[in-house]
């Protein structure tokens, strides 16, 4: 079985050459318009040194990998046999015939640029038929040889130029490169600084982070530092669930260096993870994730005894239309409790007093409507 040396050995041929597998061997060939010299490198063929390459009176111009026939300026100036029928930008006159200049091709009777017809070939190339070198590589790309030979390949600036500074690492990218700070360093005012020598801040939550529906929620944080007592933070930003709050929420800095986020008319959709990001020149960027919770719709407050009575209470955690019903539970049966000599209600049925009845199970059920949303809750009490 024949081994494909072109696949096994990536460097079987010199740069710019094409590897061709043969039975029991392989062959390296140069691109069209080039030949291999004694050292094996590809050299440009000077077609203009050959005879009868161009028409009589035309000027032969050698180019990398090819050649072109230009109009001889003197003869073209003197050749008026075409009259004014030639386009002076794309054509020249020769013996009564309009011919396309170099870099142009005749299509449907019109000389058009060869750039649109694969003149340079390959990707990442630049084509300008009016320049001396019609083809070249885009910035950040190079040819295999000093002269242009398609294709253009990415230039590894990190190896060729070593463009990054101290404490930086170079990352090569298609057509360019990027300098990043090394591990243990961070970018501060366009300079990679050592994290160990850089001050930082701590963000502390100093308020509640549990709020009821409809109330005004104030999330208060305090920024603490070990280097100065009251740094002026130049950039403060809030986001919720990794999405920046827009428009920016109300926030301000107190003399105690606190940042406050105010949420009017708190609703269930406002609950989530809020991120506070603070920045100051010379400091590490500091972030703190602050979870904000919706207060339970109903909270079991507990029970207490007063002589012959037992008091049970629940708290409804929103403003709106709501009702609380109390039940005595016996197995799978529930008996709705109504005001009587043994049952008393207070504060819209949030609190109930029942004459002591040990071993009984009671249940509070709440139904409420806020806007267009309905909320329910259940709390149980065992005497």
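^ structure tokens above, recovered residues below v
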């Amino acid at each position: 079985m024949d081994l494909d040396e072109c696949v096994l050995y990536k460097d079987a041929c010199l740069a710019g050459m094409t590897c061709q597998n043969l039975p029991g061997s392989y062959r390296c060939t140069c691109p069209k318009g080039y030949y291999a010299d004694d050292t094996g490198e590809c050299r440009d063929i000077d077609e203009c040194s050959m005879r009868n390459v161009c028409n009589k009176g035309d000027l032969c111009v050698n180019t990398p990998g090819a050649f072109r026939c230009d109009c001889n300026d003197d003869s073209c100036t003197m050749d008026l046999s075409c009259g004014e029928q030639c386009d002076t930008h794309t054509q020249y006159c020769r013996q009564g015939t309009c011919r396309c200049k170099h870099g142009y091709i005749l299509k449907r009777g019109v000389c058009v640029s060869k750039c649109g017809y694969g003149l340079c070939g390959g990707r990442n190339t630049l084509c300008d038929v009016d320049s001396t070198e019609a083809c070249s590589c885009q910035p950040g790309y190079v040819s295999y040889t000093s002269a242009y030979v398609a294709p253009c390949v990415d230039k590894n600036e990190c190896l060729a130029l070593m463009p990054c500074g101290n404490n930086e690492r170079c990352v090569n990218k298609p057509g360019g490169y990027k300098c990043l700070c090394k591990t243990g360093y961070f970018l501060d005012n366009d300079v990679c600084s050592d994290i160990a020598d850089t001050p930082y801040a701590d963000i502390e939550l100093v308020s509640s982070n549990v709020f009821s529906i409809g109330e005004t929620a104030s999330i208060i944080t305090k920024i603490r530092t070990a280097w100065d007592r009251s740094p002026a933070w130049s950039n403060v930003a809030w986001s919720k669930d990794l999405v920046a709050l827009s428009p920016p929420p109300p926030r301000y800095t107190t003399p105690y260096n606190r940042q406050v986020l105010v949420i009017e008319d708190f609703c269930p959709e406002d609950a989530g993870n809020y991120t506070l990001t603070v920045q100051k020149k010379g400091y590490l960027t500091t972030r703190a994730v602050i979870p904000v919770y919706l207060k339970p719709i109903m909270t079991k407050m507990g029970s207490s005894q007063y002589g012959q009575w037992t008091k049970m209470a629940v708290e409804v955690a929103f403003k709106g239309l709501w009702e609380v019903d109390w039940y005595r539970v016996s197995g799978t049966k529930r008996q709705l409790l109504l005001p009587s000599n043994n049952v008393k209600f207070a504060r819209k049925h949030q609190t109930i007093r029942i004459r002591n009845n040990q071993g009984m199970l009671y249940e509070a059920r709440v139904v409420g409507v806020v806007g267009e949303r309905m909320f329910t809750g259940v709390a149980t009490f065992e005497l």
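The radius of gyration is 42 Å.
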